[in-house]
Specification:
The protein has a single domain, classed as Intracellular proteinase inhibitor BsuPI (Immunoglobulin-like). About 0% of the residues lie in helices and about 50% in strands. It is built from no helices and 10 strands. The strands form 3 sheets. The chain has a 4-stranded antiparallel sheet with strand order 1-2-3-8, with no helix packed on it. A 4-stranded antiparallel sheet has the order 6-5-9-10, with no helix packed on it. A two-stranded antiparallel sheet has the order 4-7. This is Intracellular proteinase inhibitor BsuPI domain-containing protein. InterPro entries: Intracell_prot_inh_BsuPI, IPI. Pfam families: BsuPI. It comes from marine sediment metagenome.
Length: about 130
């Protein structure tokens, strides 16, 4: 599957897309973000709200057509995740190949970004490109 890997401070961040580079139009596209503590110490990740990440799909004209977090509500309270040395955090999501307004996406090229945004470790990953086929 298409994969992007970043080493950022004490973290290894892996972003993968299931369904390959050319997913069938009828299949859902899975996104997976794996954050691993590569240091020998415990790391505490903190967010100003319950929103820990986001996934964004852009069309060939770079227009955002789908955003995972759109129309979601997040608790406005600090969130903390502790990662011991070598441990990981896994985030998964599914895109049904529709826009945020519910329209089916046409065939074409799309880029997908993952955003992992704890305070002091904020990182964008990608883009990973896919071409939707029938």
């Amino acid at each position: 599957p298409p994969v992007a890997i970043e080493h950022y401070r004490d973290l290894e961040i892996v972003f993968a897309i299931s369904g390959g580079w050319k997913p069938d139009r009828r299949q859902e596209v899975g996104f997976k973000l794996v954050i691993r503590n590569t240091s020998d110490k415990t790391i505490e990740l903190k967010w100003p709200s319950a929103k820990t990440h986001d996934f964004v799909v852009r069309n060939a004209k770079r227009k955002i057509i789908w955003r995972w977090s759109k129309d979601k509500s997040f608790a406005q309270a600090f969130k903390t995740k502790t990662l011991k040395s070598g441990s990981k955090m896994v985030i998964k999501s599914i895109w049904d190949q529709k826009t945020n307004s519910g329209k089916t996406t046409p065939r074409g090229k799309y880029t997908i970004w993952a955003e992992f945004n704890p305070m002091s470790y904020s990182k964008k990953l990608g883009p990973l490109g896919i071409r939707l086929v029938k």
